[in-house]
Structure formats: C-alpha cells, structure tokens
UniProtKB/TrEMBL annotation:
The chain crosses the membrane at residues 27-49, 61-79, 86-108, 128-149. Residues 174-195 are annotated as: Disordered. This is Uncharacterized protein. It comes from the Eukaryota. It comes from Fistulifera solaris. Keywords: Membrane, Transmembrane, Transmembrane helix.
Amino acid sequence: MKPANNLLSRYTAYMANRFCGGSSRKLIAAWWYSILALTAALSISSLTIQGRRPFAECFASVWSALLLCVLSVGGTMIMRKFHNSLAVGFFLGGVVASSQLFFMLFLFFMGYGKDLRNHGMSAKAETIMSFFSLVQSILLGSFAAILAAHRSEILDKPGNAVMEMMDEMHGISSNQTTDTAGVDGPSYEAPSVRA
C-alpha cells in the first residue's frame, strides 16, 4: 500500500506543480470548487427533468441532487473549520460513497436511455444526466484520492490551514489575515493559573 500512496503523492504533486504553482492545498481547493460547480449543474439538470419522466428517474435525480447539496455544505464546513481526523475521515467516506452512487446513477441513466431509444423515444435528458453522473463520479473519486494523499496538510497544521488554503486560492496572502484579537494566527499559550 505504501508504493501506491507514494505514486499517488508524486502524481498529485506533479499536478500541483503544473496547475497550482506547487501548492497541493490549492489543488485540493480547486478540485473541490469544480465539484461544487458540477453539483450546481446536476441540481439544475435534475430539476428540469421533473414532470416529463417516470417517478423512479425523477426520484433518483432529485435524491442525488439533495445528497450532493448536503455533501457540499458539510464538505465546505469541514474544509474550512473542522480539521480533526474524525471529521476529515467522515468526509472522505462520504465522498467515496457519493462517488460510487454517481457511478451507479451513470449506469442507471445509460440503461434507461437505451430502453427509451429501443422504444423509439428521445433519450437526450438521460444522456446528459448519465454524462454528468460519470463526470461527478470521477471528480469525487479523484478528490477523495487527492485528499487522502495530502490529508496531513489539513490535519497537521493547527488553526486555520484550510482557511489559508481558501485565502490563497483567492489571492489573499496569509499575513494579510488576522484573527479577531488583531494578532496574526491563533494563540496557543496555556491559560494562566490564578492562586
């Protein structure tokens, strides 16, 4: 398992160097933003097929859109605020499960589209939904792999490592941000004991 992780780390480091100026944190953030953008497209697409399709297809598309919205909100909260190993592990599990769900939805929409074409009906919406599902499955699966390979960048740094990553993504340097007390970064001093 160690060589595969090393290979994945080297590949993601290459992608970070090539596309994100060497920052794997920027790579993680950019990948997450692409997932959020596709989530919006899938949600809109799932709402447009309502009323014209059977209940099973409508339910599958709306349910998957709701799950993606929950994953998006929860994932963004974990990426921004909750950096402990339990939260990141739970998030990784949710991302992997969602990736598998969207691969199954890809197969579902492809099969349903084939049935429609065999009956001489148009399967344009099913083709679009199957394509979006496959792309979302690949994005989620690769995001889980990237985050698993570089999770120490989120877990090992105390304080606001992911917030700095998001700030870095938007061009804000880390020494421009301050906490509410006006001091750069969090304070880790032990509280004084009063006698």
